[in-house]
Specification:
Elements lengths: L7 H20 L5 E5 L4 H6 L14 H4 L1 H14 L5 E5 L10
Parallel strand pairs: 1-2
Helix pairs in contact: 1-4
GO molecular function: FMN binding; oxidoreductase activity
InterPro entries: Aldolase_TIM (IPR013785), NADH_flavin_oxidoreductase (IPR051799), OxRdtase_FMN_N (IPR001155)
Protein name: NADH:flavin oxidoreductase / NADH oxidase family protein
């Protein structure tokens, strides 16, 4: 299968899925939730200039590349409330020239 850029609707669906998963984590009795944006997983691919070739509000400079992160954090916070710890694991280095 050839990779393709996500549509804006697909991005919104993914953001919603993070919130739904976090809600289930809280309902299951865990003490907090970690959002994974490292090791080449999807959110990390948005963060890295090596993999993010988008030209919309989710691509380009760093402030755009983290938009999905900010949306996920906001939706997770709305799902679990202010008194439930939310962590974000960020793979902040690609170890390749031109990367993060």
């Amino acid at each position: 299968m050839i990779p393709k850029a996500l549509t804006l609707k697909e991005i919104k669906d993914i953001v919603h899925a993070f919130a739904s998963a976090a809600r289930r984590v809280k309902e299951a009795g865990f003490d907090g939730v970690e959002i994974h944006s490292a090791h080449g997983y999807l959110l990390n691919q948005f963060f890295s200039p090596l993999t993010n070739k988008r030209t919309d509000e989710y691509g380009g400079d760093l402030s755009n590349r983290i938009n999905i992160h900010l949306e996920v954090i906001k939706s997770v916070l709305e799902a679990v409330g202010e008194h439930f710890p939310i962590l974000l694991r960020l793979g902040a280095c690609d170890y390749i020239n031109g990367g993060s």
